[in-house]
Each structure stands twice: as C-alpha cells, then as structure tokens.
Amino acid sequence: MTRAEFISRLKKGLVGLSAPAAAEIVADYEAHFDAGAADGRSEAEVAAALGDPDRLARELRAEAGARRWNQEPGASSAAGAVFAIIGLGAIDILILLPLVLPLFGSLIAVLVSGVAVFLSGGFVLVAGPFLAPPGGPAVAVLAGIGVMGLGIFMTALCAVFVKWLIDATVWYARLHYRVLKPALDQGRI
Questions:
Q1: pLDDT tens track, the chain, 189 positions
Q2: Rounded Cα distance, 56 and 181, in Å
C-alpha cells in the first residue's frame, strides 16, 4: 500500500471527527511515513507496520468519543461515545447488545413512566381542587405537587443511571482494547 492510499483510507475513516482532530491525526501518520523514508524504508513497509488504516480510524474515533464524553458529558457526546465504541467490531456488538439493550429499554421505560407521573401530578394539581376531593382543595394541591416531585425524581434517577451505563460502556471498551492490544501488535488477531 502506498502512502497516498494509506492516508486516503485513514481520512475516510476519520469522517465525523472534528476537522482539527482529524488533521492532527493525519499529520501524525504523515510523520510516520517521513520518518520511515528517512530510515530508508519503503512506503509499503511503513504502511504494513502501521496496520490497517480502517481499523486505526475506528480505534481513533472510539478513543476520541470516549475522551469527549469524559471532558463534556452530555447527550451528544454520550451518543458519540456509544456509537464510536460500537463501531470497533462485530464481536463487541454481539457481546454488548444482549447486556445493554435490556438496560437501555428499562431506563427508557422508567423515563417514560417518570414523565407520565409528572404529567398526572400536574393534572391533579390543576384540576384536583375543582373536583371536590376528600380533604379539600389543599390536599389535591399537595398531592399534585408530591406526584410531580415523584416524576422529577424518577426522571433524575434515570439520568444518573444512563450516565453510569455510558461510563461502564466506555470502561468496557477501554479494558477490552487494552486486553487485545498486545495481540494486535504482534499480529495474532
């Protein structure tokens, strides 16, 4: 593989990263080719030593997604980290999906339930005093506020669990990669 082919495939694989981050990565790999040429190695030898550019791009995107999640936790960085990690390989998907999908499904159910509880509390708060509940309008207002508080608690608890789940996914990917890295470096896998 020539230098141009390697860099072209690497650039294609880095689509989705910020332009400065992708440019820095490409510059690093250009420097590897320059150093190899200075040592008298051919472009094919340097490309073979660096490995598959598609795999490198997936690993670099996964690491960038995990780094972004650690620096600025949020919905978009969480999605980026999860999708980058899933992109590492089909084996990981087969292992993680049966574990993660039920957890995400349960969390979505708790989130939807929390929103429904909050809205029902709002209904009790607004309409309760006019429906002549037992204990009078004050009880209806307090009950509505309490039920809305329960809905907020359920939603906040769901957000905390989602953060923990994403952190655990990132940890798993890093651990998994660290375990496989020596074998990848020696060409066993």
A1: 888 999 999 888 888 777 888 888 889 889 988 998 898 989 888 888 888 888 788 777 777 766 676 677 777 666 766 666 666 555 566 666 787 788 888 989 999 999 999 999 999 999 998 988 888 899 999 999 999 999 999 999 998 988 888 887 777 766 656 544 554 455 444
A2: 12
